[in-house]
Amino acid sequence: MDIYVHNPTDGVYATDGDWVHAVEVRGAERTVYVSGTMGLDPAGAPGATLEEQLDLVWQNIRVILGSAGMTLDNIVRVTSYLRDGSYADTNAKARVAALNGRAVATTAIVVQTLLSEWLIEIEVIAAA
Fold this sequence. Notes:
alpha/beta; CATH 3.30.1330.40; two-stranded antiparallel ribbon; 2 helices
């Protein structure tokens, strides 16, 4: 599988370096679409803080991708659903750390979550 980043600089606004406009995947045999994943521990309890929930989200995504024989390195797209817009920077830092600085196509959306304790939900697309 080959991954190509498309991040034009002419005729479109610039990205800020931790995300790209598009990711092209060639030769992938499998694609996994991960449902919105929350910062819940194995018993279903949410982390007490945004940082704890982000740690749990990324750990949960690791487990889910692992069940498909993939890792975070297979992620080509991330969509984050934030309960509050002020979470954007912390979320971006957690994403960058989880992906070891690898920029992918990403979007963050501010939403009202189903439960007020759920501060963030992240869905990903992975390819192998």
